[in-house]
Amino acid sequence: xxxxxxxxxxxxxxxxxxxxxxxxxxxxxxxxxxxxxxxxxxxxxxxxxxxxxxxxxxxxxxxxxxxxxxxxxxxxxxxxxxxxxxxxxxxxxxxxxxxxxxxxxxxxxxxxxxxxxxxxxxxxxxxxxxxxxxxxxxxxxxxxxxxxxxxxxxxxxxxxxxxxxxxxxxxxxxxxxxxxxxxxxxxxxxxxxxxxxxxxxxxxxxxxxxxxxxxxxxxxxxxxxxxxxxxxxxxxxxxxxxxxxxx
Length: 247
Ligand SMILES: C[S@@+](CC[C@H](N)C(=O)[O-])C[C@H]1O[C@@H](n2cnc3c(N)ncnc32)[C@H](O)[C@@H]1O
Known about the structure:
6 helices
């Protein structure tokens, strides 16, 4: 009797899993001038409309769509995962010379951040509800951002969840594309999750266009985010660093 032993599976035989690319659009908020929405477009059956070729839905878009009076050369900075927006509000008030966008995927937090901007009369910041990766990859003009801020991103601590983390090579590529040239564009990073920081430091060191400027950095302009305040009260350490784009 012959026993059939199946050949070991060659991983290269598996079709690559491609994520579906949907068409999206930037919209104003109906109530708050400080809020914008990056939304998927839906068909009459309420299904998101895929792009024809499954390629990114690149948009011709300019920062003057957020600030029609944008002065030539005004620095633009972006916060990724702005949460309830307290860094955005304090920082934008302290730095009136720049324009600031806090991107937050959770509608209720993005609205909350936007209402704080409105109540505090912050003229130079926008709260954008949407996926930071899509906005940076598909909308933000090349060579236009002076700094990126990413504080306490969701750590996705379990091994099987880690691919959901925002900080990954394709995300860094999107930041690089958007970063201003001149070797001065900074990426401010912090997390309370040691293993995420270790992975981040490895990624920074392996990425040829990044250079570590400061480890054990203090809070940017002395401002702590909502989560950082909470974690410090709980006695958790915060791992912070600043890297720079070589461009
Ligand atoms: C742990 S919270 C930290 C919030 C804030 N940075 C702080 O330190 O208080 C992480 C935030 O990132 C947001 N987020 C997760 N994925 C995102 C994405 N793809 N684009 C924008 N925001 C995202 C989450 O909704 C959440 O509000």
